[in-house]
Amino acid sequence: MKRTALLALALGAPSAGAVARAQSGSAASTMGVMLQIRPHVGDTLRMRLDQETEMVAIKRNGAVESKASVVNTMRMFSRAIVEESSVRGTTVLAVTDSVVLFSTDDPTRKLTGAMQRQLRGQRVRFRVEADGSMRMSTADDPPPREVAEVVSLMPAPFPKAGVMVGESWNREMPLPAGTQLDAPLSGKLRVTFRFDSLGRGGDLAYLSMRGEMVPAPGPGSSSATMVESGAVTGTMLVDRRRGWLTDSRFTIVVVSTIAPSPSTGPSPMRMHLRITQHMATQERR
User: Fold this and answer.
1) Beta-carbon count within 10 A of 135 CB
2) Do the beta carbons of residue 119 and residue 2 sit within 8 Å?
3) End-to-end CA gap in the chain
4) Which of 145, 250, 255, 271 falls between 20 and 30 A from 163, CA-CA?
5) CA 15 to CA 8: how far, in whole Å?
6) Average pLDDT in the 238-244 region?
7) What per-residue confidence (pLDDT) applies to 233?
8) Which residues pair with 82 in a beta bridge?
9) Rounded distance, CA 234 to CA 275, Å?
10) pLDDT one-digit tens code per residue, 69-111
């Protein structure tokens, strides 16, 4: 749960990348619309993130099947402070104002108070390039390892050239070996983005995404957990004038198999993971 909160703090949205800004110009132009990140220096963007993670573990011992489920929820209020912007990109400081965590798992629930206190006030500074790629700032102390690892693997989500309404493009990123999204994963995520439409006189851009997770090669996998199948779907609403994401909704579903180990027992364990996430940016006051 802590890893997910840190990633949300740094990215403000699922790791596939979701902030964009359409450059000034007509969507009807034959050159298309440039999708770029261009928040305004001095702006403070206040965001609310609601996330629910449901994990179901299934073990079979002969003809006997047993199930165990855990549901974790998180509500986070944070700020993205735009510190500097140039042709090279934008520097953003993300600050967690408050976090409310809950878990149906007793051991985890006992830790939520300490986790909330640790996350409150968490500060992560990062650079966002015009095409949406990210990197951690080197001006501060080393960022949390989980955040730095995922950010380093993220591809640039937006094309360098203009795109027309209705056009789609593909991106691919590896799932880092180890525990991410509250469960261990290994493989690749292939995503198709689509520029659906413009609204409110061209001020709002509507985007959607759909992707699948591809399992890592069998014996050579660096993780004991193998992805059997996985899918991600989502929608995004971008305020072109603010240059930031106004609203996003994502669902991630993963089915994986965990190899036998001393902690899981002599039989493989199947894991069903479902994550739903809603992020909203408050209107400027």
Assistant:
1) 14
2) yes
3) 32
4) 250
5) 8
6) 81
7) 93
8) 92
9) 12
10) 999 999 999 998 999 988 778 898 989 999 999 999 999 999 9
pLDDT digits (tens, 9 = 90+) for 9-54: 444 443 333 333 333 343 344 567 777 778 889 999 899 999 999 9
Closest by CA position to 234, among listed 76, 17, 52, 12: 17
Q: Among residues 277, 276, 275, 268, which one has the least CA distance to residue 57?
A: 268
- Phi, psi at 148, each rounded to 5°: -60, -40
Q: Which domain holds residue 201?
A: 2-281
Strand order of the β-sheet with 269-281 is 134-136, 123-128, 89-103, 64-86, 44-61, 269-281, 244-258, 225-239, 204-215, 183-199, 168-180
Query: CATH code at 93?
Result: 2.30.230
Q: From the CB of residue 58, how many other CB atoms can be counted at a distance below 10 Å? A: 16
**Distance between CA atoms of residues 210 and 253, nearest Å:** 12
